[in-house]
Amino acid sequence: MAGDEYELVTIYDIAKATGLSPTTVSKVFNQYSDVSEKTRRKILEASEQMGYIPNAQARTLTTKRSWTIGVLYIESSGAGLLHPYFGGVIEGFKKVATSKGYDLMFISKHIGGKKGGYLEHCKLRGIDGVVVVLPDYTDPYFKELLDSDIPCVLLDQESDLKSTISSNNMDGSKQAVDYLYGLGHRSIAHISGGTTYAGEQRLQGYLKAMEQLGLTVLPEHIIQGSYDYTVESGQKAMEQLLALEHLPTAVFVAGDNLAVGAMLAMKKHGLNVPEDMSIVGYDDIEMAKYLTPALTTIRQNTYALGSRAADMLICSIEGGSEARPQTDQIAVELVVRGSCREV
Amino acid sequence: MAGDEYELVTIYDIAKATGLSPTTVSKVFNQYSDVSEKTRRKILEASEQMGYIPNAQARTLTTKRSWTIGVLYIESSGAGLLHPYFGGVIEGFKKVATSKGYDLMFISKHIGGKKGGYLEHCKLRGIDGVVVVLPDYTDPYFKELLDSDIPCVLLDQESDLKSTISSNNMDGSKQAVDYLYGLGHRSIAHISGGTTYAGEQRLQGYLKAMEQLGLTVLPEHIIQGSYDYTVESGQKAMEQLLALEHLPTAVFVAGDNLAVGAMLAMKKHGLNVPEDMSIVGYDDIEMAKYLTPALTTIRQNTYALGSRAADMLICSIEGGSEARPQTDQIAVELVVRGSCREV
DNA sequence: TTGAAAGCGCTAACAC
DNA sequence: GTGTTAGCGCTTTCAA
C-alpha cells in the first residue's frame, strides 16, 4: 500500500532518544507548563531532528476532539461549490477555522461508499462541528443533524436549536427599494427567491419598505422565482412580468443570477435596461459589474459571513453545551452601477 | 465540551449484547467471509438497534488508512474556491471519491493554528492522497509534497513524479484557430495565460495551428496575460493590443475571464465585438453565454477533469508504490456563440 | 467459524 | 518536574 513508506516516528522514539518518558514528550507538545525549559528544548530538538509529526487520529482517540469541522452543502444539482455565494462563504470560513487549528472536511450522505446520513457521517469521523450552507431543507437526514447535539452554524436559515447567521436581508431590500424610490420610481415589482429563508426575508423587506414609502404593491408585481436562483428562472419570471398589462418602471430582483435572466428576457423582447425598466439585483456576483449594463445590486459580504460563521461555530464547539445558540446578521451594501435610471 | 454527549457504542458493547466476541463483530463490519450468516445477521441487528457507528480514527490507527483525500489549492488571493474552474473540478472529484469511500479535506500550510507545511499537514492527518489544483508552483512546501511518497494527482501541470491530468490544451487552441480561419480570418492574435502550464500549452497550440495553416504570427500579436487569468489582466492585454498599428481581425484569448476584460477594453475604445474584432475565449465559464455578445469559447469539461483525477488518484493510492504515475488528457469542445464574424 | 491477546500512537490520572 | 499505567476503539495474527 502507498503510504506505508513513512518513517513513522512516535513519542516513544523521541522518549528513547532523549532518555525521557513519553508522557513528558506528550506534555511538551501540549503546552503543559510543568516541563523544565531544558527538557522542553531537548525534546523539541530531538523531535525536529528525527522528523516527528504527531498523529491526529491517536490524539483524537483519547481526547475525543478531532479538530475537524464538517462542511455541509447541497449535493444534488450542479450547484454547490459552483455557486459564488458558497465559494465566498467557505473561503472566509476556512480562513478563520484554519487559524484556530481546525481543518475542513466535506460531509455527505455517502459514507465509506455506502449511503448513510449526515449525522452518521459526522459521528464516524468524529466531527467537532458543522457549517451548513445551502442545504436541502426538506432532507430528513438534514433534520436529523439539526436535532442532534453536534454544534452547527446555519447560514441563511432560522433555527432555535443551532446558531444562525445571515446577511441583513430585510435591510438589503429596503436599500434597494429606497434607492429606486429616490430615483423617482413608484411602481416597483419584485422577483423573489422562492421559498428559501433568504428569499422570504427579502420579500418581507421589500413589502415593508414599500409600505413605509406609502407605495402600493400590486399582487401581480410579485413574481416567484425558483429557489435555486438560476438565470433560467429569472428569465421565466421576467417573461411573466412582461406579459402584464401594467408594467412597473423598476424591479427589485432577489438574486443576481435571476437578474441576469431577467435582463436577458427583456433583451429578447426588445426592451432595454434601464431605459424601459430599472433593475436592482442582489448578491453582487463577480459578473455583475461586467454585464451590459453593469448591474446595480445589493452586495452580500460572503467572506464576512463565512468568517463570522466560523467564530460562532468554534465558540459553540469550545463553549460546550452551556453555550446557547447565537444569531447574527451581516450588513449589506448597495452598489450603484448602470441598471437603474431616474424617472 | 460539546459532543461528549454521544452515547458511544463500541464493538465491545455489541459483542456483549450478542454474546459474541469483538473480533467477530469487527469481522462483520469488514466483510470477512468467515462469519456464519446467522452470526452476521445477529450482529447487524444488534448494531442497528444499539446505534453502533464505527470510529474512523480507531480504525485508521491500526490500518494506517484514513480514507481521506487532501485538497490542495492556492491559498493566497481571493481566488481558489471562487474560481469556477476549481469548483467544477472539485465537484467532479468529490463525486467519484465519495462513491469509493473517501472523504475530502482541505490541506493548508497552517496546522493546528501554527504554520507548518503541506506535507506535514498530510502526515499529521494521515491523508491517503492529495489532489492538487491551482497551487502556488513556486512554494517550497508544495515542492516538498511533490518529492514525498504521498500519492498525488496534479491538474494542469507536468511532473515525472506524480500523476497528472489536464484538458487537451493544444487541441483547444487548434480548434479555436481553425474556426477563426474557417471564418476567413488570417490575422489572429493571442492573449496568453502567462507562464502557467496550461497557458504555455495553449500558446504552443496556437503557434502550431497557425503554422499548419501557413499563417504568420507577428510577435507583437502575442500578448502575455497574467497567470491569474483575471478580467483586469485581460483588459490590460487588450489595451496593449489596441495600441498597435496593425490590428488583427481576431484574437484567441487563453481564458474567458481574460476575454471578458478584453471585450471591456474594446468597448471603452468604442470598438465592437465581433464587428471590429472577433474573439474566442477559453473555459466556457458560466457567464460566457450571458455576455453581450455571447462569447464563443473552448469549453473545458471541468467535471470530467475532476472525476478522472479522482480515478487516477485512487488508483495510485490503492495500487501502492508499484503503480506508476499516469498522465491523461480530457477532450475540449468549441462552443460557437456570437463573438466571431466572417470576414 | 469463533475468540484471546497484543498493539496502533497518544493522553491523562496519579504517583513519585 | 518527571514517569508509570491504563485505556481510547479498532484490527489482526494466531490459536482453538
Automatic annotation (TrEMBL), chains A, B:
The residues forming a coiled coil are none
Listed A to Z, the keywords are: DNA-binding, Repressor, Transcription, Transcription regulation
Q: Name one Pfam family in it.
A: Peripla_BP_3
Q: Where is the signal peptide?
A: none
Instruction: Note the SUPFAM superfamilies from the entry.
Output: lambda repressor-like DNA-binding domains (SSF47413), Periplasmic binding protein-like I (SSF53822)
Q: Which residues form the HTH lacI-type domain?
A: 9-63
One example GO MF annotation: transcription cis-regulatory region binding
Write down the PANTHER family for this protein, in alphabetical order: HTH-TYPE TRANSCRIPTIONAL REPRESSOR PURR-RELATED (PTHR30146:SF148), LACI-RELATED TRANSCRIPTIONAL REPRESSOR (PTHR30146)
Annotated protein name in UniProt: LacI family transcriptional regulator
